[in-house]
Amino acid sequence: MAHSQPAAGGMASLPALLHRNAKEFGSAPAYREKEFGIWQCWTWAEAEKEIEALALGLINLGVNEGDFIAISGRNRPYLYWSMVAAQSVGAIPVPVYQDAVAEEMAYVLGHCGARFIIAGDQEQADKVIEIQDQLHQFEHLIYLDPRGMRKYDHTQLHEFSHIQDQGRAAHDELIGELERRCAKLTYDSTCVMLYTSGTTGKPKGVVLSNRNVVETAKNSAEFDKLGREENILSYLPMAWVGDFIFSIGQAYWCGFCTNCPESADTMMTDLREIGPSYFFAPPRVFEGQLTNVMIRMEDAGALKRRMFHHFMAHAKKVGGRILDGESVGMMDRLKYALGDLLVYGPLKDTLGYGKIRVGYTAGEAIGPEIFDFYRSLGINLKQLYGQTEATVFITLQPDGQVRADTVGVPAPEVEVKIADNGEIFYRSPGTFVEYYKNSESTAGTKDAEGWVATGDAGFFEESSGHLRIIDRAKDVGKMADGSMFAPKFVENKLKFFPDILEVVVFGNGKDRCTAFINIDLNAVGNWAERNNIAYASYQELAGHPKVLGSIQSHVEEVNKSVAEDPMLSGCQIHRFVVLHKELDADDGEMTRTRKVRRVVIEDKYADIIAALYDGSGEISTTTEVTYEDGRKGSISATLDIRDAAVVSAMAHKVAAE
């Protein structure tokens, strides 16, 4: 299907796009990074020179065509350059999650057989050194930040800047070889290999070609009219497909500037300084910022608080309609303009969202109230639906057709169909080549005609033609009475409350639903301080009677909302427990992209789940935890099990009538 396409604009690879950008608008900014509190900038012409020096250095170090080069660290221009330099020499970049523990790293590096590893700093280098006896193909490690690396054995270690210096020194003898390798790159050459988050098992290496990346970048950029003048902040994991397509694919296709924050701690400050025009964040970022806004409002003076709530109520009424270009009365428009001057504008500037023209969220469903809050401020926040195997985009929301409960229409050149069991299938120019060394999984996911099974269940609305996602197909089950069980539907409603961080709902095959809940330490801690409630730990706060009472009221409120949906009213939560620890990727309970691993949780907390169903009022449990330095420990707790009021479908029907 896609194979007949010629390369878009004759550009068959990222190095070709880089060369075009350097030639046509070489003095325009390509990368910025904040270091030591100062923004450094590289133009496209300078970036091309830096990448060329690194590529020559890699050839000098012995990188062959077809080699895998793993890249691990925080978002930095140098590491983005590494991906394009790897491609330039015919090698395949494999970005690795920087917060992956050594064991997870060992699997990825061993599976792809990386001969070369580029690490951001000492912490990343240490992880590789710890596992290097398991890596039979590993030969050289290049580190970017030399701090702390002086006394290491440098037989296999090389400083990034030295590799570039050696590349520059060998320019005359190696430039011909580099040009020969670059010229060989086609639309079918591998562009990158990205590992899935591994919700159900070992991560899989998703092979994406230049066709996948360039065509997807072109189509999505045209859909949202992205151009050279955009500014983005690149702060999400470089191993995640979303960051790759925004910070490399679209950035190289459009020629816009990629800005890297100084650190995770300064991200919000750097966001304000850059004021991106095009922005992506998973729901948890928007949820966290809204929680912070609400906390700050609680601490504000009475007048300021009243003004905020007054104008926000008006924004809720007309803000989204004004954004979508619908007709709104003159008085309402004037009041909204005043609100923009006094509240919305300053708030957007504080958040760093003052210049956003296009904003996206995806990965998890976002609470409708959170979504509507940002849109009511006049921020063009939209939803997309995608996955690694699609090079991100499956559906997108067109401007003026944005809703919280759908994920839009098929993206340009993407075909979508729904199977009889409700599972969503797609095919597109972005459809991945294969899972590396896993032909069985490839065949099980992608059929001979190129249709890919997403594993998600959903349906197209007849009225709008927009896609609605119900849940993961494998998570949608049946209650004991045969009614539908869709945990995500309920979990997302609960996660809207600022004091709830994570929820896991159980009930497949059971007569009723129960839930685990994690509190948001930031929001609940702030509430405790304002109410002079002393606490020494997460565990102590999570078990406080007032906290449990507050969570119970949220659960009961959500039960009323769930009861309104005749298809899913059986998913109301009858009993719940507030867990004594946060679910954590280091403990294997979540993926690095913060998706819950249900199987792990059901196994690890089987005693608590049993207590939720056997009528116990409390449960004493001991749980193994992993500390930041990798040591294991355990925490014990006696948890209070709460019953929540549910609404019978019949009672709801009567109330509605």
Which terms would index this structure?
single chain, 657 residues, alpha/beta, Rossmann fold, GMP Synthetase, Chain A, domain 3, 3 domains, five-stranded mixed beta sheet, 28 strands
Question: If you had to describe this structure to a student in words, what would you say it looks like?
Answer:
This protein has 657 residues and is of the alpha/beta class. It has three domains: 2-259, ANL, N-terminal domain (Rossmann fold); 283-354 and 356-472, Rossmann fold, CATH 3.40.50; 477-656, 2-Layer Sandwich (GMP Synthetase, Chain A, domain 3). It is 40% helix and 22% strand. The chain is built from 22 helices and 28 strands. The strands form seven sheets. The chain has a five-stranded parallel β-sheet, sandwiched between helices. Helix 3 links the parallel strand 3 and strand 4 (92-96). Helix 2 crosses helix 7 (171-183) and helix 8 packs across helix 9 (241-254). The protein is globular. The mean pLDDT is 92.
Question: What can be said about this structure in brief?
Answer:
By secondary structure, the chain is an alpha/beta fold. The chain has 22 helices and 28 strands.
